[in-house]
Amino acid sequence: MSSTAEDMMELHWLFDMLQHIDVGLVVLNEKYEIKLWNSFMENHSGMSSSIAKERSLFEVFPSINSEWLQRKLDNVIALRTPIFVSWEQRPHLFPFKSYRPITGIADKMYQNIALRPITNADGSVKYVCMVVYDVTDVAVSKESLSSANRKLDRLSKTDPLTQLQNRGSLDKTMGSAFHSFQIDHGSYSLVMGDIDFFKKINDQHGHPVGDLVLKNVSKLIASSIRSSDFVGRYGGEEFVILLPNTDADSALFFSEVLRRKVADAKIATGNTEISVTMSFGVSQLKRTDHSVSDWLNRADGALYKAKAEGRNQSILAR
Hints:
single chain; alpha+beta; Beta-Lactamase; Alpha-Beta Plaits; 11 helices; 22% strand; GGDEF_dom
């Protein structure tokens, strides 16, 4: 076989591989006009090479951010260096549908994009090759793992019954507030609340009703705080609310508003309704508090006093 025939065969092989390789190949000139559009691009875009070629990429895909991509294409030509765009930077460039059964949770194909300069025989660069990789499987697996880790992290901080923060998360947040206080000496207050006669509720109505009361009270507390506040279940029927940028008088006012809300609420328990009340102890963090325990114990002492003096009231620790 002559060398010319061998060269023609190699050229045929190369062309066949370019057409059937499982990545997208697009060649653009300096005007962003399509010069090559392989079968991967045809199959996923639904547009044949004969229709796509000689048209501007941004005419074929108007949804592409032209300013962003043009800047990258111009840099590839001017600097003669490739540029890589990860799916983590931009999930996809081309809005192709995902087609793999195992990644059915992905609506669109995740893509990595490589932009490479094409050097002519005279050394000039006037074309850019875009290589489009389908990385949907990798992306979905990574996002699923990240989602699972976020869920596990959330569960590790959440009380399963009330969906408030749990004791461990509460301790950590109070520790952070105490540390901040050592630096900025700002106003940080704690409100410790306890449902009055909760044991009697369990004894008279049963633990399922007791759980229902805890859930309803938790929702009421959660709906009463600011986005900067923090509420957690301290244990049993006790709750702790951390109020940053709040002095003692403001915290006492907050606890009284919350106390009245709880007292006015009606909790449906099957064919009847019940009402509950809460007692509160309030303490503002002071320089004489040497630890979180000192701060918390003052709030707990005020709560104990509120319950001892008749319940359904708020007491401020001095």
